[in-house]
Fold this sequence. Notes:
Oligomer: single chain
Order of helices and strands: HHHH
Largest sheet: none
Structural class: mainly alpha
Helix content: over 70%
Shape: elongated
Strand content: under 5%
Number of helices: 4
Amino acid sequence: MKSNEFFFLTWAAFIxxxxxxLIAIWNTDWMLVERGFYTIVLGWITFSSFSLVxxxxxxxxxxxxxxxxxxxxxxxxxxxxxxGMISIWNTEWPLVExxxxxxxxxxxxxxxxxxxxxxxxxxxxxxxxxERLQFGDESQEIQDDFPESKAx
Length: 152
């Protein structure tokens, strides 16, 4: 089984990154409409990242996914990321401030991908484990599903 530590570390990284960017947005002297815009973009990036990973995993696991929906997920992820990056580029902020928000967006997007994958992996593990218990096939090692790398 994958370690609980990695699962919680992924959650902690996501919550920390999302919170830091959100707190930075709301602790500025920007107009309310600017704060709202960047908050919505941050939420859009997060949601589109989760949707894209789920759709890709569904397709890899032979769950029917329409080409149109897959295309829309890609479009949403690219558009949200692009709008976030371009809107920051077009500000009159110092480069260091732009860099902070760019890295924040990249970090939130990456941790959204990682967290989505971890949640799906845990669900797959739970489903397989419950299936084995239901059929009384406890002789198989559950850890075989998620081999951990061992140092030689």
